[in-house]
Amino acid sequence: MGITHWIVAQGAAFLLLMVILNKILYKPVLSNIRRRDADIDDKHDQAALLRKKASALKAKYDKELEESNASAKAVYVKIIDKSHEEALFMREKAKKEVDDLLNKKRIELDKKLEIGFLTKYIIIPVKIIKSITLHPI
Asked: What is the reported pTM?
């Protein structure tokens, strides 16, 4: 048995080891690597799909936010306009009340002045004249 038998035995042992390792180690490891690659690819696809959904939701929410801001601004402007109208109405009402009160006081004052005038220049002199004519000196 020479060196050739030894090399053949070594070669056969190596081939046997390769067959055994292929069945026990290489195929399961390769299977796990392929499964992990497939899982990673699935996760990347899911992540891309989720990013797409998130982008669509963000666009939808941005649009809704813009619409609600526009609606809120419209309501704000309407409230401001309404408050200005009410302020003008209240101002006009107060002005009318003040004018009415001033007119009423002017009329009262005019009556008092008229009574005072009548009293001072007509009624008192008439009383004096009557008292003179009724009681001759």
From this structure: 0.46
SS (H, E, C) 68-93: HHHHHHHHHHHHHHHHHHHHHHHHHH
DSSP 8-state symbol, 121: I
Which is higher by pLDDT, 109 or 52?
Answer: 52
Q: How far apart are CA 35 and CA 27, in angstroms?
A: 12
Distance CA 75, CA 53 (A): 32
Q: How far is Cα 21 from Cα 19, in angstroms, rounded to an integer?
A: 6
Helix H, strand E, coil C: the string for 34-51 is: HHHHHHHHHHHHHHHHHH
Nearest alpha-carbon partner for 62 in 52, 73, 70? 70
